[in-house]
Amino acid sequence: LENNTTGSRNIGIGYRSGYNNTTASDQIFINSIQRANYTADQTNSPIYIQQNTTVANQNIFLNGKVIAAAPIRKKGYTVATLPVGVQGDCAFVTDCSFTSAGVGTPVTGGGSSVLPVFYDGTQWIVG
């Protein structure tokens, strides 16, 4: 982060990690290679984190394969508490009305089935 001029509260782990981050704040870079520019720092660092005071606006970018040695746990929601989605988001619901649910159909609450859901860009669907 040696080129950081106006940004603050940044963390870089690794040689010249986040080197081109000159103005952004609340960023964490885990990397061991000096990248060509700030965009490359974001998109090519193995791990890049954007911190924010709003949890929904915090992001962790894993630029590479994720290989887990244990199960990956997702947060469960009731249908009513599913967050505003971005196409490709995955979650699971704990109160799906299974009698009306089929893969690819809009998810409805009021039941007791636990099912995975997917945000298709317009709505949460069973999947």
Describe, in plain words, how this protein is organized in 3D:
With 127 residues, the chain is mostly beta strands. The strands form 2 sheets. A 4-stranded mixed beta sheet has the order 1-2-3-4, covered by helices on one side. A 4-stranded mixed beta sheet has the order 5-6-7-8, with no helix packed on it. The longest helix is centred in the first third of the chain and has 7 residues. The relative contact order is 0.12.
Could you name the key traits of this structure?
127 residues, 1 helix, elongated, 4-stranded mixed beta sheet, single chain, mainly beta
Number of extended strands: 8
**Bulk shape:** elongated
Structural class: mainly beta
Count of separate DSSP helical elements: 1
Largest sheet: 4 strands, mixed
Can you give the mean pLDDT?
A: 87
Strand content: 25-35%
Quaternary: single chain
String of helices and strands: EEHEEEEEE
Question: Which spans have pLDDT < 50 for at least 5 consecutive residues?
Answer: none
Helix share bin: under 10%
Give the N-to-C terminal Cα separation.
42 Å
Side by side, the strands of the main sheet go 1-2-3-4
What value does the Rg take, in angstroms?
A: 19 Å
